[in-house]
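HUMAN: Forgive my ignorance: could you write out one protein's sequence and backbone structure tokens?

ASSISTANT:
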Amino acid sequence: MVEILMISKKNKIAVGIVGLGNTGKQHLRFYIKNNYIEKIFVSEIKKTKKLINTKVINDKNLIKFNKTKGKKLLSISNYDKDHSKFIIKYLNNNHIFVEKPMCRNFKQLNEIYKIAKKNKFKNLLSSNLVLRDSKIFNKIKKKIRNGEFGKIYYFEGDYLYGRLKKLTKGWRGLDKDYSVTLGGGIHLIDLMINFFGQLPEFVETYSNKIVTSKNKFKFKDFTQSNYFFKSGAIAKISSNFGCVHKHQHVLKVYGTKKTFIYDDMGARIFNRRDPSSAKIHMVKKLYNGKDCLLPAFLKNLKTKKNYKKNVMEEINLMSTSISSDISLMKNKKVKIKKYI
């Protein structure tokens, strides 16, 4: 029997959109097609005149969106440096879906946490970390949780950016505080936390700026963070933005019973120490577009009334990621702050 969900007008949601780059446009198209969305208020409608219709409203400073009553969602995908500003301004009265990273430092993170806690986590806050949609990674996470890998003792993730022009000629290169960890490696930090099912205790980060040594921007183009868990397990995450390689995520999980590897050769699980025990599975797509997390996000809005667990996971992810940059700045191992 097929369950048909009827959506009454009072249960529909108004969406405000900030940022219409490649990601923002994909999100806008998704919202236009979704029956749960009643009105869409766009702050940069000039970039997408072809998408204007009765559902999409030109709203430069989100003035009309702010005056709208009922359930509301702010969808943020503008420049990294501005994400936290909109979250801090709107989280108290709106659900928020934001492009990563949702903030850049502990001052911003503490303010976001304070707002969420004060309003008793009544609004959902989630980041667009698209690898959460990966079927192969979710399959491995399930196997780990079921004990099939034994005890995990080492996790390795490499974010191979392979898009040097976006650093030398795009907005990232103009951003004096850009972080390759928060802008890229955070995807793998998120997977690391989900695979282990716990937060690391400490982090120590190293970096260099060899590939882009002659460029004007100030940030490091390569970082490597080592994370240390209470269980004794160790993880290594690298953000390799200057590499001579295609855009690629590399993931390796080592357990006492099994090993999982995903790289440009494909995905495979080793059940024995014999190399022939692994079959290579080619993965055409790790995730289905930049809007792949929105269906689950909207489902949460329909079915939940308190979002403490979801919000705290986002906040502790940011604490872990920001701590990597703090370690780099202080040139030493640092303890990771855990929010409760």
